[in-house]
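Annex B.
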Amino acid sequence: MVRSGGGRLLARGAARWRAFAAGTWGRRLRRIAPVVVPVLLAIADAVLVNGLELALELGVSVVAAAALLLRRRFPLLVFLVTLPGLYIGYIWFAPMIGLYTLAARRPGRRRLGICAVLLIAAHFLPYPISDFELTAYRENTLVLIDACVTSAAPIALGLLMRTRRELASRVEDLTRSLRREDRLLADRVKTTERARLAREMHDVVAHQVSLISLQAGAVQVSTEDEAARAGARTIRELSVRTLEELRHMVGVLRADGGDGGEASGLAPQPDLEELPRLLEMSALDVTYEGGVVAGAGGAKTVERAAFRTVQEALTNVRKHAPGARVRVRVDPADEVCGEAGPGLRVEIRNGPPDATATAPVLPGGGHGLVGLRERAQSLGGTLEARHTSDGGFVVRAEFPYGAG
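histidine kinase: predicted structure tokens.
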């Protein structure tokens, strides 16, 4: 029980320490500690070695310790300032930390060699120089070895830390490069799969639509009923239009896959000029109120988005509100999406469905309005779709011309 309680206390203390380290004060401490701790160690070294009585030695040593505050910005100058502290005050921490910083940040061979010789000289020669005894061979040899180790250790550690940082940076660059290559490989796989799906879509859908067109042509030739002939002609025109748009989409997909030559000669995309024809062929009771001249805004992408919005809305009316009356309105706007600027406003409003009309059984994935909303957002516009109080439905979209 005692061990369990002690373990809980240790876990709680560790959790509090991690929370403190991740907090604001922890981040500040991690930023300040590498600058302040070496200075405090050097000051403690100066006080312990020289005491508080030796004014010159203590003063030079404290100046050398305080200079460490600027060691990252001026490593060579700071190291030179610490040398009098070693020579006069016999301190070690300040010059060794200065030399370590110099090796980690300015690792020139000649510079480090000269600085190592200066530190050895400051350590080997006594203060004052008159106290130097040339005949004390054993003691001089020990001091020289100690001075060489004192200068070599911080240089080796500084170079090691610099190499470690460079290796970490190279590993990070290599990791980013591998991730980028993985993304490029994934994009290439997606592109290949997109081209394959485009070919399959063309083979399947084009075959079925071609059969529909042929059957409609046969009905148009064989029937004597004028209404049936007109309907068959409409079916053929719609089939031809569908094949043209399918060819365009397949060409775009293959062009994204790298077959740039297949993107040339594609069928033009529909715009507002095609809108009256679309309404005429929709077989719905549609009232069109158009206040926009096709091409007046100079943004074909916006006009194409408006055409697709009307097309999808009419398809939804045909599916869910058979026999309903529809009003389509396309107007220019001086302010769209709450911002001033020319744009296009599209509204498709239908009433409640006719109870006597038979709803056609048409497939649907439920993604039409979602796709329209994503298209509008990609152009910087908005799309709203909701039920009305009279049992109908309204689709309202706004597109800025600047996005086209």
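The first strand starts at residue 285 and ends at 290. The beta strands are 285-290, 325-336, 339-350, 382-387, 393-400. Further annotation is deferred to the next reporting cycle.
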